[in-house]
Structures are given as structure tokens and as C-alpha cells.
């Protein structure tokens, strides 16, 4: 039987096929724990020793605990709600040889081949009008498999295992049914129910219906969709909920990290800064608060793959289940500094949490996170850290079960 963190993570991922669903589920978690739900358009009356939660665009979330005096500094944990996937196009209906298909757009750096031959469903946010003509939005989730992208048989492409290239425009349209007269808008209207009379727009993602599972002879691994970055999102949220301290603390999970974070709800946007501004009364106080605070940017790291060990610097190849990974890049693709790293290492040593370090090979390009973006926007001391994983950006990824527990312990130690 998996420990509560793993069980909770699996349930959270299964219930969160899109950033909208993840944010909704997080909001419920915090509200059920006594966090007061705020609306950005209202006046706020923030009090000491209280807890609050606020969302933006239904896809990004901030929860915070004020402690005795938040002006003495806040310990912040950041993650992101989005994952690479296939998104449904605005006018998606394609009818070919009697099959009803949907055109898709690639969102983020998707590893495309694993999306073929999967039992796919569709979820996200639908906007339209109700029977009174008011604009309304609704989250939907078909939940059951409704689509598939079949591979081409090897008999029709003898070079498939050595040279097949997937064309997103021509090879990825979903196959829904053999009823091409049925429009996708009609399907959405039926899924929305009586709350919507007319569909005007939507933001819908495809996802694999296979549930998360614990794998390995000794239950060493968790295999699931969207581990990047719902693993960090769930653990960061749980750390804020479970840590007992008078220390002011904040959790944020932004949307749109996988496509550059440049949006109203992304890390390049003003969401976090606007919340911090409402906790202070002047530019000077905001600067003072930020200077006394620090951010733990949590996003999964590349664990060394035993079949592709040459893709790592041999001195910086993180092992699954050997502890969270401090991510370092001298070209500022990660925001870790020697000071932020030293402080984190000290906390983890006291908590008995093992740590590893990752530096990308010097002849390879390095990815990035919300860490450098948030550090740039706020000027806050930041550390980039994450659980090591395999198959990042695949439709199904793998991480270590012990690392989930280690990262949770590390986040709790950081917040406290």
C-alpha cells in the first residue's frame, strides 16, 4: 500500500487532467483546510495568523499563511499547473473517408510518439451563453476514452523504427467515431448540460485515461501522466497545508510554464507581485518583504536513464529515489545561487533529506523553470529543485516513490 503522499498524488493527478481541474482541486483542498477564498476584484482584509487562497484565470493559484508577521519574510514554494499535451483547435471538425476527426495543436515541448495508440479523453474549460444570454464557463471532462490516434502499420512504412517523423498537422488529428455528421460543438453542449445554451469558445486538452500506478518489484516508481509538474504542485500544496509553524508562507502554481510563462496567469505575469503588493502598503515595504523572503522553485529534474547514460554529465546524473535535485546553471536557466543552495542544504541536512545536484552536459542546451522568471520579476532569492524523473514530456512519465516523500519533507523543512 503506497504511503499517503503517493496515494494522494495519484488521486490528484487522476482528477486533474488540465490546469483548470488542477486549480479547482487545489482550491477545494485549501478551502476544506480552512483557507479563506479571496476574489481579486474584492477588497481584502488580511489578518495575522490567518490563511487565504486566490486563483486567476481558473488555472493559476496562490495560497498563503500570514503567520505572526508576514513583513518579516515569507517562505514561498512555486510550481506550475500545465503540462505538454495536445489541444483541440477552434474549428476542429475533420471528416475523412467516413471518420469524424478533430484537429489538434501541440502545446509545449511534447514527446509525440507516445501519444499514438492511447485511449484518449478530452477535458478543459468551455465558455458560452446560458439561456438568458449571459456568458458562462464550465469545466468538463469526458472521463471515458473518446478518441485515438492510431499508428501506421509497419507494413506500410518499413522504415518506421529508424526514420518515421510525426507531422503534427497531418498525423495527429484524433479519430472520434464513424459518425461524421455529428459536430464537436454539439458534443460539448451535451457535456455541459442545461447550464449552457450555446458554445462560443473552449480551451480543451487531450489526455491519456490510463490511471497513475506504482510500478517496480519493490514499488520503487510512480508512473503517470503530467508528473511534470503536478508532482511538484501537489507536494508544494501539501507542504503548506501540513507544516506547523508561525512562519509566513506562500504556495503558487502558475499556468503556461511549458510555453514560456508570458501570460496574465503565467510566472511572467503580475499575479504573484499583485498579491504581495496587497500585503504591503508601499513600494518600500514590498521591497523589504521580498528581501526577507525566499522562493523554492519546484520542477522535476532529468534523472539519469540507464539506457542513455551518455546524455548526462557523469558527475551530475541524478538517481531516482536518491533525493531531490538542486538544479544549477551558470547561464541562469536555473535561479540557484550558492547562498540559496547552502541555506536549503542546511535545512535538508537537519531534516535528514538526501540531496543531489544536476548540471546539464556542457554540449547540450538547458531547459528552464519559473525560478529565473520569478527571480527576475521580483528580485527574490530563489533555488531551483525537483524530483528526478524519466521520460519528461512524454504522455506517461516515471519518478521515484521515495523522492516524492523526500521532496515533501524538504518542502516542509523549507516552509517551516
TrEMBL record:
<dbReference type="GO" id="GO:0008270">
    <property type="term" value="F:zinc ion binding"/>
</dbReference>
<keyword id="KW-0479">Metal-binding</keyword>
<comment type="similarity">
    <text>Belongs to the peptidase M18 family.</text>
</comment>
<dbReference type="InterPro" id="IPR023358">
    <property type="entry name" value="Peptidase_M18_dom2"/>
</dbReference>
<protein>
    <recommendedName>
        <fullName>M18 family aminopeptidase</fullName>
        <ecNumber>3.4.11.-</ecNumber>
    </recommendedName>
</protein>
<dbReference type="Pfam" id="PF02127">
    <property type="entry name" value="Peptidase_M18"/>
</dbReference>
<dbReference type="GO" id="GO:0004177">
    <property type="term" value="F:aminopeptidase activity"/>
</dbReference>
<keyword id="KW-0482">Metalloprotease</keyword>
<keyword id="KW-0862">Zinc</keyword>
<dbReference type="InterPro" id="IPR001948">
    <property type="entry name" value="Peptidase_M18"/>
</dbReference>
<keyword id="KW-0378">Hydrolase</keyword>
<keyword id="KW-0031">Aminopeptidase</keyword>
<dbReference type="GO" id="GO:0005737">
    <property type="term" value="C:cytoplasm"/>
</dbReference>
<dbReference type="GO" id="GO:0008237">
    <property type="term" value="F:metallopeptidase activity"/>
</dbReference>
<keyword id="KW-0645">Protease</keyword>
<dbReference type="GO" id="GO:0006508">
    <property type="term" value="P:proteolysis"/>
</dbReference>
Amino acid at each position: 500500500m503506497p504511503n499517503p503522499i503517493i496515494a494522494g498524488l495519484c488521486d490528484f493527478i487522476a482528477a486533474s487532467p488540465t490546469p483548470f481541474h488542477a486549480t479547482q482541486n487545489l482550491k477545494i483542498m485549501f478551502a476544506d483546510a480552512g483557507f479563506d477564498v479571496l476574489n481579486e476584484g474584492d477588497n481584502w482584509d488580511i489578518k495575522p495568523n490567518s490563511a487565504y487562497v486566490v486563483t486567476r484565470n481558473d488555472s493559476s493559484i496562490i495560497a498563503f499563511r500570514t503567520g505572526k508577521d508576514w513583513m518579516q519574510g515569507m517562505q514561498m514554494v512555486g510550481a506550475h499547473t500545465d503540462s505538454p499535451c495536445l489541444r483541440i483547435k477552434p474549428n476542429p471538425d475533420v471528416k475523412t473517408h467516413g471518420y469524424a476527426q478533430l484537429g489538434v495543436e501541440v502545446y509545449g515541448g511534447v514527446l509525440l510518439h507516445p501519444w499514438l495508440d492511447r485511449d484518449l479523453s478530452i477535458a478543459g474549460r468551455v465558455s458560452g451563453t446560458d439561456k438568458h444570454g449571459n456568458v458562462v464557463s464550465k469545466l468538463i471532462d469526458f472521463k471515458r476514452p473518446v478518441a485515438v490516434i492510431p499508428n501506421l502499420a509497419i507494413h506500410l512504412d518499413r522504415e518506421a523504427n529508424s526514420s518515421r517523423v510525426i507531422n503534427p498537422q497531418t498525423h495527429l488529428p484524433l479519430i472520434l467515431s464513424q459518425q461524421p455528421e455529428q459536430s464537436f460543438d454539439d458534443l460539448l453542449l451535451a457535456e455541459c448540460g442545461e447550464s449552457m445554451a450555446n458554445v462560443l469558445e473552449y480551451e480543451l486538452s487531450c489526455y491519456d485515461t490510463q490511471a497513475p500506478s506504482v510500478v517496480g518489484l519493490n514499488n520503487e516508481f510512480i508512473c503517470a501522466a503530467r508528473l511534470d509538474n503536478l508532482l511538484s504542485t501537489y507536494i508544494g500544496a501539501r507542504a503548506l497545508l501540513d507544516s506547523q509553524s508561525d512562519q509566513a508562507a506562500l504556495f503558487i502554481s502558475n499556468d503556461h510554464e511549458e510555453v514560456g510563462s508570458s501570460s496574465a496567469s503565467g510566472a511572467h505575469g503580475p499575479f504573484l507581485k499583485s498579491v504581495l503588493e496587497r500585503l504591503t502598503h508601499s513600494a518600500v515595504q514590498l521591497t523589504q518583504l521580498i528581501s526577507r523572503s525566499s522562493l523554492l522553485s519546484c520542477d522535476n529534474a532529468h534523472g539519469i536513464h540507464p539506457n542513455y547514460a551518455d546524455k548526462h554529465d557523469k558527475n551530475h546524473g541524478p538517481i531516482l529515489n536518491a533525493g531531490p535535485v538542486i538544479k544549477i546553471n551558470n547561464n541562469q536557466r536555473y535561479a540557484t545561487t550558492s547562498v540559496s543552495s547552502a541555506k536549503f542544504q542546511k535545512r535538508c541536512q537537519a531534516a535528514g533529506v538526501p540531496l543531489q545536484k544536476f548540471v546539464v552536459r556542457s554540449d547540450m542546451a538547458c531547459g528552464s523553470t519559473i525560478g529565473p522568471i520569478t527571480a527576475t520579476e521580483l528580485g527574490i532569492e530563489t533555488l531551483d529543485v525537483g524530483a528526478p524523473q524519466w521520460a519528461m514530456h512524454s504522455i506517461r512519465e516515471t519518478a521515484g516513490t521515495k523522492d516524492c516523500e523526500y521532496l515533501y519533507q524538504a518542502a516542509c523543512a523549507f516552509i517551516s
